[in-house]
Design brief:
single chain, 3 helices, rod-shaped
């Protein structure tokens, strides 16, 4: 169960750099006034990509760690 909590926490913390990267991508494509379907890639891609990487980092196990009992 600890892996799920860590994955959620990493995903939540990854939202901050994801939002910043999405803003940078929006500026780099020229700050268009109207929304087009191609705008989903630079606006949503970095945001959800960072969340996915954060969740993946939280889920993966650390093979070198042993718990003492």
């Amino acid at each position: 169960m600890m892996g799920a909590g860590k994955a959620i926490a990493f995903g939540l913390f990854a939202m901050i750099p994801g939002a910043i990267l999405s803003l940078v991508a929006w500026v780099l494509v020229g700050q268009p006034e109207t929304w087009s379907s191609w705008m989903a890639i630079p606006c949503y891609g970095p945001f959800f990509g960072c969340i996915a990487i954060g969740v993946w980092l939280g889920i993966r196990g650390e093979p070198g760690v042993e718990l003492e009992t």
